[in-house]
Amino acid sequence: MTTQAPLKASPLYFSPISPSHNVAPGKEGYGRYMLTIPWSRTSGWGQAKISPRADLSFDPLAGVLQYATTCFEGMKCYKDEAGDLRLFRPNLNFDRLKRSGARLGLPAEWDNAELLDLFSKLLYLETDLVPQADGQNLYIRPTLLETSESFGIKEDAFASEALLYVVTSVNLGAGLYASAEGKGLRLDACSEFIRAWPGGTGSYKLGANYGTVSVAKKPGFAMSLWLHGAEDFVSEAGAMNIWIIKEAKDGVLEFVTMSLDNGIVLPGVTRASIIQLLEDHASGKAEFPLPGMPKNIRVVQRDIPMAEIVEGTKDGSLKGMFGCGTGVVVVQVAEIQYKNELYQIPANPAIKLLRDTMTAVQRGAIAHEDWSYVIPAWEAGSAQEHDVDGQKVVA
Ligand SMILES: *Cc1c(COP(=O)(O)O)cnc(C)c1O
Q: What's the pLDDT tens digit per position in 156-175?
């Protein structure tokens, strides 16, 4: 039994883009580079490589193609006022990728610091591509998948070969938010297709969770609001965690989101960050970073049946609704179609306040704990990039 090599940031195989490199039509908004790290069950993690973004090739029976053994993360790189690049709580995404990988029998062990080092180098090379304007960013898509052949009955649950890769794209998700700005999203509550159920994979970021329900999308609606169970409990919308703002019987303004207990809901980094900001504010542990958040609030994590939302629009107890996630940050939900009725959801100023606070922390305009990570310069990489014409360099 050989020992499996751990994931290491160095030595890094760096293949700079040639100065005569032309971007393929339609791919102008993509980062020029990709990071790839192969893994095999016998030898562990192979050498990390940063090279020009290119197609991947696999055996036609690769697990990813046959059985959708693929999972991913969604992160963003921001450029602050000083021109530095920043990531928001990257270790939470890395930990979640480990969880998703383990769920699929893919490799799920590495040192986050090594991976962060590689991310930083990849992103530093794309510095010019990262927009600086508020609300803009370079979207990052880490992906982990099974490259080995997989068919019939496997001997055991684990993949024999896998690939972790990272590609980037300018401003993914910005269009969706812009279309909702001021008026909010229209959602179609869907009970025909079920996104997630107890014991399923809803709480993991697996490709299959998205591909199998994308047919539910209705024209005229931004995305589906996923429901589950006999009582049509709300789970999520698109790739966002969902919140309602509700006036409770005791007069407290409640921020209610689904609990993670039944394994149906994706444990969002944005969700967790909003919960912490609101709970610290409510308990007096830390003032909400921007002024204007009411003091008399409470965070509640529980199931929300559609009937409660419908009633809330009628008796006035529903004070707002929003989605949150890396893509949209925080976005108001304005309308829901449910059982052929259209329900209007009131706007709430707390939603914009949450959005402004999250974007300010993400861009480093407001410091909060260690939530924003500044990417160090990688002079060696950028110097080589300018000196070397298509030559391979091990850094
Ligand atoms: C990614 C995702 C979210 C949001 O998670 P963040 O970590 O906040 O980006 C929510 N729901 C689903 C289904 C997702 O895929």
A: 889 999 999 999 999 876 66
Q: Which one of 193, 241, 242, 260 would you pick to mutate in the ligand 1 pocket, going by the greatest count of ligand atoms within 8 A of its CB?
A: 241
Cα of 180 vs its chain's centroid, Å:
19
Query: Within this chain, do residues 228 and 127 fall inside the same structural domain, yes or no?
Result: no
- Quote the ligand 1 centre to 272 CA distance (angstroms): 11
pLDDT at residue number 301: 98
Residue 298 lies in a domain: yes
116 and 263 within one domain = no
* Residue 30 pLDDT: 95
Domain of 316, in residue numbers: 185-346
Do 155 and 238 sit in the same domain of this protein? no
pLDDT at 176 exceeding the cut of 70: no
Residue 190, CB half-sphere, CA atoms under 13 Å: how many?
24
Q: Are 335 and 344 in contact (CB under 8 A)?
A: yes
155 and 44 part of one domain: yes
Burial class (CB in 10 A: 0-12, 13-18, 19+), 50: buried
Number of structural domains (the chain) is 2
Q: What is the pLDDT of residues 268-325, one digit of tens each?
A: 999 999 999 999 999 999 999 999 999 999 999 999 999 999 999 999 999 999 999 9
CATH number for the domain that contains residue 65:
3.30.470.10
